[in-house]
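Lecture notes, unit on protein representations.

Consider one protein chain, 301 amino acids long.
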Amino acid sequence: MTLTTDPRSTDGPAGRSTDGPAAGPGGKADRPSTRPTLDAGERSRLERAFRIPRARFLIGLPIAALLLIWSFNGAEFNFIKLGDGAVNMGEFLSRLFPPDFSKIGTILALLLETFQMAVVGTVLGAVLSLLAAFGASSNIAPKWVYYPTRWVMNIIRSVPDLVFALMFVSAVGLGPFAGILAMALGSIGSIGKIFAEAMEQVDRGPVVAMEAVGASKRQVIQYGILPQSAPLLTSYTLLLFEGNVRGATILGLVGAGGIGLELTTAMRMYDYGHLSAIIICIIVLVTAIDQGSALIRRRIT
């Protein structure tokens, strides 16, 4: 093999290169560095992203510790008292065994009613929450709609579901209908806010592109926002359903249907065997619903 050199790249008879990279210790030319370079402003920005705000951290840490200690004292949280009461907790749990399934027919009928309440309450609550979320999304509603909707949702979220249940019991009487109305209304404050935040976090690219070609607000929502937020909305609706199943057992305490009234009666009558059977059936129902919801989430995500 014959090697040729460009005479323009040599200097004198020795053929020493003047333009190329200098030869290294092993006789090989050093390759030019390919490391990317950053300007001073970009380097400073990246370094700040990993820098701990020491002054704020050192000031905030003792403040957080004092707040925690103050909260422990105000709430009268006492580990010693908890340890002393462990014996009583063990005694209470021992009374729950063995469970008494002699009234299993009544328990299953009330569980079915609880499940039906949760289904209807979830559907109504999800629809109402979605409608409210359109007004509570900053990228959809104007400010004169956005702020009043957010305030109404804050008020609803501040009121316990038991208060709504008592209100509807006084309006429509005892039974599951009052519980369904309470669950639907209470969902607007909590799930409506989550729905709105899910729609606010969509990618702005498709939305801006549709607005640029003259799409109407309805078309932007229908084709640009809802398709992107649909998986999150479905997941939150399943979460709402799980919460309504558990919540329906509580609403029964005030006569708003479900198995809660039977649970309260068993506790007041000190019928621990029947109480244990009710709790076991509720655990089975909630676990089955949780597994089904997890399967649906895996399919849509």
